[in-house]
Amino acid sequence: MGGWAIAVHGGAGVDPNLPQERQDQAKQLLTRCLNLGISALRSSLPAVDVVELVVRELETDPFFNSGRGSALTEKGTVEMEASIMDGWGRRCGAVSGITTVKNPVSLARLVMDKSPHSYLAFSGAQEFAKQQGVEMVDNEYFITEDNKGMLMLAKEANTIMFDYRIPAVGLETCSLALESPLQMNGLPIGVYAPETVGCVVVDSQGRCAAATSTGGLMNKMTGRIGDSPLIGAGTYACNLCGISCTGEGEAIIRGTLARDVAAVMEYKGLGLQEAADFVIKERLDEGKAGLIAVSNNGEVAYGFNCVGMFRGCATEDGFMEVGIWE
């Protein structure tokens, strides 16, 4: 075993005109989350505890699209989803349609640990949350003024916004003002914005875990479920590796992206970075996405086929990196 390792992401697809101040804020948040995870790993917390801890931090900060700061539905409300997977025994939990649970990833953990099921959604998930006594807040807690503005722009453009973090100032230089070739199930969408958060960890015992959380797409239909809560699509962990994906959810679902990284490692004998590169190139068709991954021997990998991905990683030997672009 090569020691512990951790990677985090704040979404794939970044506006190339994103102001430097926003880039710096993103890097500071990713660094803070990495340091939180590093401290936990040095304290010998198991991988599954660390991914939950880090994603909770990302959900609490409104900068990225999860928890507080989540993208809004076409009705101006928030519907969140999350999943977590412990590679030790391939245990998993997932939730969708969450509207009042402060930290959806922790509800997903409770589904894994405290229910006979792997996935709960909408009213059933909300009722389970009440039974478990998790912290609840009003839906308005998750809604930010920035996202109200982004929803207005999306409605004016009559588009689902994969690109929901476009600054209101200087719109003419940003992706929403341009004719975008990107489509989702044949329909045009915007591009260039973070739309998920995730964390993958391998601990000092070689146990891998992954967690992913999101508010989904800006101006999405109510009831839409993306890849983030789907085990094998947006999240996967096993004895070999842990993976968290981000990007065009419908493409990630069709490609079973997270599971495929583990599958080509297992069946084709590829290394972690080779496997990440392979699935990004071969499994997305025309979709745009990215992923982060760790292996049971302490490797870290990432890959994406869009303009940038907010990401960071650290390993037990002292390596640490935070980046956005190639």
From TrEMBL:
Any GO molecular function: asparaginase activity
Protein name: beta-aspartyl-peptidase
Site (Cleavage) residue list: 195-196
Stored Pfam families: Asparaginase_2
Organism per entry: Escallonia herrerae
Keywords recorded for this protein, A-Z: Autocatalytic cleavage, Hydrolase, Protease
Superkingdom: Eukaryota
InterPro entries reported in the protein's UniProt record: Ntn_hydrolases_N, Peptidase_T2
Catalytic activity line of the entry: Cleavage of a beta-linked Asp residue from the N-terminus of a polypeptide
EC annotation from Swiss-Prot or TrEMBL: 3.4.19.5
